[in-house]
């Protein structure tokens, strides 16, 4: 029996016992999203009530299966092999769950059936959120205990590695190229070719680096993988090490993902214990090990050379390319940098073969891709769909459209440097080329949906501010250009826009393109989207001093609605700047000079406080095309 | 001159870290976890341990937004700056917090009771708009991922009146909100 077969046999014993426990088991999804949803209170309630009732139940954990909108999620496994997913399970729901789910079904909280033949519960695959999904990378997410390597191995973990180790480095690279796998971080460069560069590099040692600095706000697909199935990423890196001759690796995880840091560290320890890292991996002669580096809050470290600088005891300043990392990467030595999801694809290619891998996706873009969707959307979560799936299909079917049925006005893919799409682009296929044609980036998998209450100018201001704030400061084009953009955009929002600003923004965009790294080069994309897709709205702000969405600070005013002047004492009391002035007869007015537009009064008394345009437009504002 | 006891404490804390091995971020994290911030003396100790110049250590320390160079406030309100929060009124919350606490982002009240910190999105967007509350000195241990708890407890979705109420109570010294 090979070393791998031995590992697998042992793992399968553990997994069988997990699926068919002697007494019921409750597995709570512990992930960043469930932490936000208060999973610790649910866990505490479960512990307390299981103890108080002296129930014969075991408690365990799983990762997140992407249904973030239903957290805290709980899986109940019964001895008969039935596994049912419940959510959201709040502390108040624990008594019902314990009463009903251990022997039967707690119908009120059911999400779906994971295993077993209880026909009264629909399979999870029939949930609308599962539409269009092909779960390959996410197959184990929310199903296994991410802190137990046996669960991973029993479900195919490290099988791809054991097969790849029987191939030569050249064959591994050949198959990776044949699979058509490209980098999922945004640049979409073919992974196999990148690995081949490193294989050909002369200097030693060589390094593997995993970019888990998923800094795009609103994107969290890498987090889901690292928290819920870290071994898939680790296995992919070992395969790449075998293909390239790398001896050591780093997973650079952003500081905002502390749970991913912990789970990856645990996973590395366990992999080392099983002989999957270190000397002579699985008896193949391969020597490779790696560690986790925890970032500390710098978006630009997501740029690959910034990330390398950050690993090297330094400020995370991007470098000038060439030399490329394959020649001079971390510590000046040959290095391969890929995104989390890129590495996670490799084990699947070698486990199932290239033909299997290419079953889904398009000829040009084979495989699947994870997407996380946030913003004005009914179900916030994460899905995995074949590349080339229509964007509207997942936004409407999986994510349920906007929460209150308002029209979608814009979609923001690819993070702050990715740009903004109008609603007319809803039907774009989810692959890089159609996005590029619209002047935006598909990016690493984050999509932010904006409904018609969104002011695009405000959103663009945010992205430019972000680019300015996170600029490393090396290039004047970048730190100066983004700063100027923010100044202009804020001036427009304050009601002081000039017609010449449009031309000025175009000039700045041209200058930013000369920045050294992608941070500065990508910074103008959002402004470009504004100029290209939302020009009417921009012109309304500049010419008519009118914000169609009623968001921009200097173009709106808060006032007490007619007839309510005597009934706004609560709103006046909450005002943090005491902007309400009581006039004789108990009538309140809002002193506009003191008002900071924090919206507190309107949220408290929506019937009595209204937002109105700050000034009468010089002429009636022309209708602004929404979308 | 740092006193000897503190110097030994730093040395003990940093013993495991080696020069030229990519350990600088780990050093800074460890010191901050222990002290709540990175004291100036620790910069010297780290420089010595990693054979770097103090300027290089200080340069890195101030490059990353999650490192602090002053003791943290009793309660740090970490305001999420992400786009999902913004679409749902996060900017309103920021204005209200700053006005109520009479401080700006990355500042603390004069008694160092409450501070404001701009936080990046971690994808907890189902609860937007949100803030995290982090209490100084809290190094929770236990079964549920200490690093995670270190990040603080989420409050969201938060309305502006709730944010103002929260800030007013914290400012008045009611830290158990």
Describe the fold and architecture.
- The complex is a heterodimer of chains A (627) and B (177).
- Chain A contains 24 helices and 18 strands.
- Chain A has 627 residues and is α/β, with parallel strands linked by helices.
- In chain A, the strands form five sheets. Chain A has a five-stranded mixed beta sheet, with helices on one face.
- The longest helix of chain A is centred in the last third of the chain and has 18 residues.
- Chain B is α+β, with helices and mostly antiparallel strands and 177 residues long.
- Chain B contains eight helices and four strands, in the order H-H-H-H-E-H-H-E-E-H-E-H.
- Chain B has a four-stranded mixed beta sheet.
- Chain B is elongated and about 50 Å long.
- The interface between A and B is large, with 69 and 59 residues.
List the helices and strands and how they pair.
The complex is a heterodimer of chains A (about 625) and B (about 180).
Chain A: H1 3-19, E1 25-29, H2 32-36, H3 39-52, E2 58-62, E3 74-77, E4 83-86, H4 94-100, E5 110-115, H5 149-154, H6 159-164, H7 169-179, H8 191-200, E6 207-212, H9 221-228, H10 230-244, E7 248-253, H11 258-273, E8 289-294, H12 304-311, E9 335-339, H13 340-352, H14 354-357, E10 368-375, E11 381-386, H15 391-398, E12 408-413, E13 421-422, H16 432-437, E14 446-451, H17 456-470, H18 476-493, H19 501-512, H20 518-522, H21 525-533, H22 535-543, E15 556-560, H23 569-574, E16 580-583, E17 587-590, H24 600-604, E18 609-613
Chain B: H1 4-14, H2 24-35, H3 40-50, H4 54-63, E1 75-80, H5 83-87, H6 90-101, E2 114-119, E3 131-135, H7 146-150, E4 153-155, H8 160-171
Parallel strand pairs in B: 1-2
Antiparallel strand pairs in B: 1-3, 3-4
């Amino acid at each position: 029996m090979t070393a791998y077969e031995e590992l697998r046999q042992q793992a399968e014993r553990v997994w069988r016992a997990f699926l068919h426990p002697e007494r019921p088991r409750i597995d709570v999804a512990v992930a960043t999203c469930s932490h936000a949803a208060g999973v610790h209170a649910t866990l505490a309630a479960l512990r307390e009530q299981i103890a108080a009732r002296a129930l014969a139940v075991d408690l365990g954990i799983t990762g997140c299966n992407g249904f973030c909108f239903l957290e805290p999620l709980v899986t109940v496994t019964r001895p008969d092999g039935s596994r049912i997913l419940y959510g959201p399970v709040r502390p108040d729901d624990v008594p019902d769950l314990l009463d009903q789910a251990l022997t039967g079904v707690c119908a009120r909280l059911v999400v779906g059936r994971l295993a077993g033949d209880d026909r009264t519960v629909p399979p999870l695959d029939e949930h609308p959120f599962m539409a269009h999904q092909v779960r390959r990378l996410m197959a184990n997410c929310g199903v296994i205990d991410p802190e137990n390597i046996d669960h991973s191995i029993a479900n195919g973990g490290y099988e791809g590695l054991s097969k790849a180790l029987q191939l030569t480095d050249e064959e591994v690279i050949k198959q990776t190229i044949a699979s058509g796998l490209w980098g999922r971080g945004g640049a979409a460069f073919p992974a196999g070719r990148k690995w081949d560069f490193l294989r050909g590099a002369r200097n030693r040692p060589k390094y593997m680096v995993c970019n888990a600095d998923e800094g795009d706000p609103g994107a969290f697909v890498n987090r889901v993988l690292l928290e819920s199935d870290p071994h898939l990423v680790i296995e992919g890196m070992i395969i790449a090490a075998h293909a390239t001759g790398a001896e050591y690796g780093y997973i650079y995880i952003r500081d905002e993902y502390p749970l991913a840091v912990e789970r990856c560290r645990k996973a590395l320890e366990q992999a080392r214990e099983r002989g999957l890292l270190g000397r002579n991996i699985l008896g193949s002669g391969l020597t490779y090990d790696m560690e986790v580096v925890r970032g500390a809050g710098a978006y630009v470290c997501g740029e690959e050379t910034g990330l390398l600088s950050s690993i090297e005891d330094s400020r995370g300043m991007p470098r000038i390319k060439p030399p490329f990392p394959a020649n001079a990467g971390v510590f000046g030595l040959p290095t391969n940098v890929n995104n989390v999801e890129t590495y996670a694809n490799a084990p699947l290619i070698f486990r199932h073969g290239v033909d299997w891998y290419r079953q889904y996706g398009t000829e040009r873009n084979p495989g699947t891709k994870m997407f996380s969707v946030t913003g004005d959307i009914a179900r916030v979560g994460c899905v995995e769909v074949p590349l080339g799936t229509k964007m509207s299909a997942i936004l409407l079917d999986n994510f349920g459209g906007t929460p209150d049925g308002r029209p979608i006005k814009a979609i923001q893919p690819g993070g702050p440097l990715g740009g903004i799409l109008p609603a007319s682009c809803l039907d774009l296929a989810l692959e890089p080329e159609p996005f590029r044609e619209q002047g935006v980036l598909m990016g690493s998998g984050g999509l932010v949906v904006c409904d018609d209450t969104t002011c695009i100018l405000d959103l663009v201001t945010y992205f430019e501010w972000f680019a300015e704030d996170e600029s490393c400061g090396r290039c004047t084009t970048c730190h100066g250009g983004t700063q100027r953009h923010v100044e202009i955009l804020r001036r427009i929002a304050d009601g002081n826009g000039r017609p010449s600003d449009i031309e000025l923004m175009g000039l700045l965009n041209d200058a930013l393109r000369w920045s050294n790294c992608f941070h500065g080069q990508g910074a103008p994309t959002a402004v470009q989207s504004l100029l290209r897709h939302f020009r009417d709205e921009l012109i309304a702000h500049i010419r008519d001093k009118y914000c169609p969405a009623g968001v921009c600070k200097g173009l709106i005013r808060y006032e007490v609605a007619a007839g309510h002047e005597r009934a706004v004492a609560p709103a006046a009391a909450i005002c943090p700047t005491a902007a309400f002035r009581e006039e004789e007869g108990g009538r309140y007015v809002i002193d506009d000079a003191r008002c900071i537009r924090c919206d507190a009064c309107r949220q408290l008394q929506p019937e009595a406080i209204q937002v109105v345009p700050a000034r009468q437009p010089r002429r009636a504002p022309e209708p602004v095309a929404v979308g | 001159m740092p006193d000897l006891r503190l110097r030994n404490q730093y040395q003990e804390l940093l013993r495991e870290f080696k020069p030229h091995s990519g350990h600088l971020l780990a050093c800074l994290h460890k010191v901050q976890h222990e002290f709540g911030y990175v004291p100036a003396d620790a910069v010297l100790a780290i420089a010595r341990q990693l054979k770097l110049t103090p300027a290089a250590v200080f340069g890195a320390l101030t490059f990353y937004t999650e490192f602090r160079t002053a003791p943290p406030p009793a309660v740090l309100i970490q305001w999420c700056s992400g786009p999902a929060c913004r679409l749902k009124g996060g900017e309103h919350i920021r204005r209200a917090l700053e006005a109520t606490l009479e401080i700006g982002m990355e500042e603390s009240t004069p008694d160092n009771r409450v501070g404001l910190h701009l936080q990046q999105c971690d994808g907890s967007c189902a609860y937007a708009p949100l803030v995290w509350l982090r209490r100084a000195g809290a190094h929770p241990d236990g079964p549920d991922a200490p690093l995670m708890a270190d990040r603080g407890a989420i409050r969201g979705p938060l309305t502006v009146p709730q944010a103002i109420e929260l800030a007013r109570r914290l400012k008045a010294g009611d830290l158990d909100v």
